[in-house]
Amino acid sequence: ISFGHNGSMPSETVEGATLNRLGSDLGLMTQSDNAPPDVTPGPLDLETARYFGQRVATVAVRLTQKLTAAV
Predict the structure, then answer these.
(1) Helices (H), strands (E): how many in the chain?
(2) How many angstroms separate the first and last alpha carbons of the chain?
(3) Run of H or E residues at 45
(4) Which of 29, 46, 48, 59 is 20 to 30 A off residue 14, Cα-Cα?
């Protein structure tokens, strides 16, 4: 499932930074430093994960509706 935008980088920003900042054609990518889980991944990477999760859920609902309609 793509990030849901034209091109690899979305136009949405959170606190002045772009979501999916590491970007990947393979799927969601975040960065985790060698730090405790309350510090890393950072807030922007967590927001990217939430956004991607919503995207996956939306696509899953659409696919389910199409499959149900086809039966």
Answers:
(1) 1, 2
(2) 24
(3) helix 43-70
(4) 59
Please state whether the predicted TM-score (pTM) of the whole model is above 0.90. Answer: no
Best CA proximity match to 28, nearest among 43, 47, 12, 11 = 47
Task: Tell me the two tokens of residue 19.
Answer: 């979501």
Of 11, 13, 46, 52, the residue nearest 31 (C-alpha): 46
Q: List CB contacts of 43: < 8 A, sequence separation 6 or more.
A: 14, 15
pLDDT in tens, 19-30: 666 666 667 777
Check if the beta carbon of residue 49 is closer than 8 Å to that of residue 28.
Answer: yes
